[in-house]
Prior knowledge:
By secondary structure, this protein is mainly beta. It contains 7 helices and 28 strands. A 4-stranded antiparallel β-sheet has the order 2-1-28-27. It has a 4-stranded antiparallel β-sheet with strand order 3-4-5-6. A 4-stranded antiparallel β-sheet has the order 7-8-9-10. A hairpin with a 4-residue loop joins strand 17 (235-240) and strand 18.
Amino acid sequence: MIRKTTYKDNLNRLRHAVCAFGLLISLATLPASAQHVHQLSYTGAWTDTNPVGATTDSKTGVAAFLTTPNNQVHTFYLASDDSVHQLFYNGVSWSDENLTSATGAPLALAKSPVSGFSIDNFQYVYYIGSDHHLHQLLYNNVKFADTDLTKTAGGPLARTTTKLVAFTTGSPAAHVYYQSANGHIHQTYTVDGSTWQDQDLTAIAKGTPARGVWMAGFNTGNFQYVYFVATTGHVHQLFYNNSTWTEKDLTALSGSEAVASGSGVSAFVIAGGTDQFEVYFVGTDKHIVELSSTNNQTWAFADLTDLTGAPVPAIANQIVAFPTPNDDFHVYFVAKSHIHQLYLPINSLWQIEDLTVESKGPNANGISGMAGYASQNNQYVYYVAK
Length: 386
């Protein structure tokens, strides 16, 4: 029997359609997590925050640091249109600023890394432009301005897959490390804050060209250390001893396995009477490997996956590592779309923790940059949600 449609049937259908449309509108107005930069913070417990910035380039670089003396948070990334953005937390609320629009700087090269640091409230941010030039966005405590460092220093064009490392050896000196098209590591630097120069460190140290994967670096005084993956798959260190640059093959020195294709390195130093150097990467067996030295001469390795039973990491996502002031070690990586932490409390053993489960945060995209730092014993990690 064919059922006849009544006026009441049509009215109910209309009501259902209106409710469904209203639900879709409500969902559309909720802040989305997808491809946004999120903050994981530990201040006694792990929490996840979505500052609700712009949708990111899926493979964006991420940089983050605190400015002093007010401890305000600044996080930098590429939006989906490859403009450079800043997420800024003033202690009460988050805001998002398009620095490309504010400065008239060129758009970034797609997937560009972002690196930077602060000196007091001055902020120094570096990225690769769509013109393959190295650019500096400088906040002088009044406004941001763009400088084309490739043009200023006369350096070569950056390779499409270059990564960046930047730090200061003391105001106003700034050092930025990147890769040219032939895989050489270059340093663009200034000692007076205005005159920039470029050096081919691979040529100077007679070293090995690099893969286009994540690099790491830091300084102790004027001593400078840059870590990268060579075309051989070995971890190399470029070291400036305040006089000359030299290069070491840390994989050969430690007897560790090579680096997995697509994985980069993270590194830090605990400076003191005896400096302790730490480097982390994903090995060819997809295990997380630690390289350690207390004299920058003798290097040893440990398989942290074997030690902790950690899950298999997402090779393409950046690894972040830093110590807290009490000399605990912290290493952050993505596995199964979750942010995980390997941590070593002082005088204890390595442990593994799933921060996405603990914070009830969203999945990570697993192919982007990541950044982090410690403030006292509090920890902050910035990643791109899936």
